[in-house]
Every structure is written in C-alpha cells, then in structure tokens.
Design a protein that fits this description.
Helices cover 14% and strands 34% of the residues. The chain is of the alpha+beta class. The longest helix has 12 residues.
Length: 161
C-alpha cells in the first residue's frame, strides 16, 4: 500500500473537485456499499460510474482521463467510480470487501477532508484528506465509512491493471 498527499497538481485537483462536488454531477442511489447486504444502517451511498465494461459511460470521462487517469498510466481500466457517502450522526463502517474477484490494483483519491476513512484488512486506517491518494492491491479487503463532520464524503475509486 502507498499513500500520497497532494497527488494531483492543485489546479487539476480543484477542476475535478468542482465537478464532483457540484450541483450538476448526477448521483445515483446505490443500495449497498458491498455486494453483501449489510445490517449497518445506513449502508447506502450515491455513486457515479465513469467507466465500466471496457467503455466510458459518463460525460466526465474525458476530463478525468486528461487530469487523473493519464497520471496513473494504467495498462487497462476495469472501473472508475465516484462515491458520495452522506453524513451520518454516528460514523458508520461499511463491510470489508474486495471490489473485484480477479487480480487488479485499487486507487482511491479523496476530494474532501472529513472524519471518514478507508480501513485496510490489517487495521490500517487512511484518513480522508483532500487530494490524498491510496494505491493498494485489489485483493486486499478494505472498507469505507461515512463521515460526521461534512455534508458528505467524496472520493473516486479506480480499479485497473
């Protein structure tokens, strides 16, 4: 696992953040944070898929490709997904999971600083700090959380080879 602060140049980061945290980014209700149904309440969140099934599926693909994906220089993309975890009164941990059951790499970039975090299966907790990137093997179980100190927790999750 590798954690890098100030991953993107500030100008590029602000441009992407304005998209993600704007009124014109379409968010779609997602019933569960993992493929397993959790008893956690709330286990829901909102997402915006940018790339899946070997093709772009969002008008935002080109700008994310130019400002972020090219910097990752992946051999192949599996999925690109924006996440919005609404604020809760008590911080909620979602179930540990892997995104895909095949070998891949994970990349998470936080768009805002909040008290939410990503936890790895070994217990390592990576705080959500804007422009902080996390790189890790896709076979490592991890979990997301909500936040309690901002309106929502925003990040992007890129699965790639």
């Amino acid at each position: 696992m590798n954690v890098l602060d100030d991953f993107l140049p500030q100008k590029d980061f602000i441009e992407l953040k304005k998209i993600v945290m704007s009124d014109f980014c379409p968010w779609f209700f997602t019933e569960s944070c993992t493929l397993q149904k959790s008893k956690n309440d709330p286990d829901f969140y909102f997402s915006h898929i940018i790339y899946i099934k070997n093709q772009p599926c969002s008008d935002f693909f080109n700008i994310f490709n130019e400002k972020l994906i090219k910097k990752l220089n992946p051999f192949s993309l599996v999925r690109i997904k924006l996440n919005c975890y609404p604020r809760t009164s008590v911080l909620t941990n979602h179930l540990p999971h892997v995104d895909f059951d095949r070998p891949h790499k994970n990349f998470i970039l936080s768009f805002n600083t909040c008290d939410g975090f990503t936890r790895m299966e070994d217990g390592t907790k990576i705080e959500s700090i804007e422009n902080r990137a996390i790189f890790f093997d896709g076979g490592i179980k991890h979990n997301s959380t909500t936040c309690t100190d901002q309106k929502a927790r925003f990040n992007i999750n890129i699965n790639y080879l």
